[in-house]
Design brief:
Layout lengths: L1 E3 L4 H13 L5 E3 L4 H11 L3 E4 L13 E3 L1 H10 L4 E4 L7 H9 L3 E4 L2 H7 L8 E3 L2 H9 L5 E8 L9 H4 L4 H4 L9 H9 L1 H14 L4 E6 L4 E7 L4 E5 L5 H8 L13 H4 L4 E2 L12 H6 L4 H16 L5 H14 L7 H16 L3
Parallel strand pairs: 1-2, 1-5, 2-3, 3-4, 5-6, 6-7, 8-9
Antiparallel strand pairs: 8-10, 9-12, 10-11
Helix pairs in contact: 1-11, 3-4, 4-5, 5-10, 5-14, 14-15, 14-16
Length: about 350
């Protein structure tokens, strides 16, 4: 397989599953964590390595190392592997997804932005999502009429904060996730609820038109639920580990034990909460987005720049959502092709940079 984003949490878990299943790793693509990358090279012996910065090539313990976005696209085209695991973060992951599909490779997708920004122009039949929520929906699907698909949210770092204090939250505050440790951007997205909005859009592209929603489940043990038209509801319980969806993405006939079962007696009880717009303002545009999921492109571009501004202390935490919604109101044009996606993305970014 080709693994994009090998040193992130998804990448690390993918390599653990690949080792368990004896899957050969042909290509490793990583960012700046060269120390961990070198450990992965030593264990998995890839043929080719790609990193983000050419200045780091000298420190990579491999004889075949390239750098930059174009190199990622080239290795996808040149590699013999038929599976690409895309665990890159952000809009950067879109071109590799498109290139892999163009090369008729299967994509195990953890890069949310690919579908959020470009779902209208992607053949989802070749996509296997690596996400516990979408995996849960897929796992629950039966040949029965569905009324609603529901995914769950943790609520992020500020689910229990006094709402009046959230305005002054720091970058460090956003990283105190109540349930697990993830990368910086996705943890911020969890706190704003943008991450869950993206997952709803992904579900819409993956499973088609229908009714979608999300609720908070504080222990992150239920990942998805389906309301069937007959009045029954099923839920997917599993401990929070990406190794389960990764295992199915790497081996469709997966019959190994991956996780310990959830012991309901030890858990005792579960708590569910509504996603309230007072705490998560981005939820105000949920219905409009689900009606017009192609507009996820605007939300993604605006979000990435708003997060940059927040990290640089140019705006406060709640301004992330207001910057996104300003862009959402401004840009209503629908892209007609992939080229339009990239040009509109650039326009939105420039607009959000100028918001004071």
């Amino acid at each position: 397989m080709i693994l994009l984003g090998s040193t992130g949490s998804i990448g690390v878990n993918t390599l653990l599953v690949a080792k368990k299943f004896g899957i050969n790793v042909e290509v490793l693509v990583a960012g700046k964590n060269i120390k961990l990358l070198n450990e992965q090279i030593k264990e998995h012996k890839p043929k080719v390595v790609v990193i983000s910065d050419s200045q780091d090539i000298w420190s990579v313990n491999h004889s075949c190392v390239y750098s930059g976005e174009e190199a990622i696209l080239d290795v996808i085209a040149d590699a013999s592997s038929s599976l690409v695991v895309n665990a890159l973060v952000g809009f950067l992951g879109l071109r590799p997804t498109l290139k892999a599909l163009e090369c008729n490779k299967k994509v195990a997708l953890a890069n949310k932005e690919s579908l959020v920004a470009c779902g209208a122009f992607i053949d989802v039949s070749k996509i296997q999502p690596i996400d516990s929520e979408h995996f849960g929906l897929w796992y629950l699907m039966q040949d029965r009429p569905v009324k609603k698909m529901i995914i769950t949210a943790s609520g992020g770092a500020f689910r229990d904060w006094d709402i009046k204090k959230i305005q002054n939250a720091t970058l460090a505050d956003t990283q105190n996730h109540p349930n697990w440790s993830m990368g910086q951007k996705i943890t911020i997205d969890s706190a704003t609820m943008v991450n869950k909005m993206f997952e709803l859009l992904e579900a819409r592209w993956l499973f088609g038109e229908g009714e979608y929603d999300a609720i908070i489940e504080t222990q992150s043990l239920i990942h998805a639920l389906i309301d069937f038209k007959d009045g029954s509801t099923t839920a997917h319980f599993a401990h929070a580990s990406m190794q389960l969806p990764i295992a199915y993405a790497l081996d469709e006939k997966m019959n190994e034990n991956i996780l310990e079962h959830v012991d309901l007696l030890k858990i005792g009880s579960l708590e569910f909460r509504e996603i309230e717009t007072s705490r998560y303002p981005i939820w105000n545009i949920k219905e409009e987005l689900l009606k017009n999921p192609i507009r996820g492109l605007v939300v993604n571009a605006a979000n990435e720049i708003a997060i940059e501004k927040f990290i640089n202390k140019e705006i406060n935490f709640m301004d992330i959502s207001s910057n996104i919604m300003n862009a959402f109101d401004k840009f209503t044009d629908i892209p007609n092709n992939v080229d339009d996606v990239f040009s509109l993305d650039a326009e939105v970014r420039e607009f959000v940079r100028k918001i004071k």
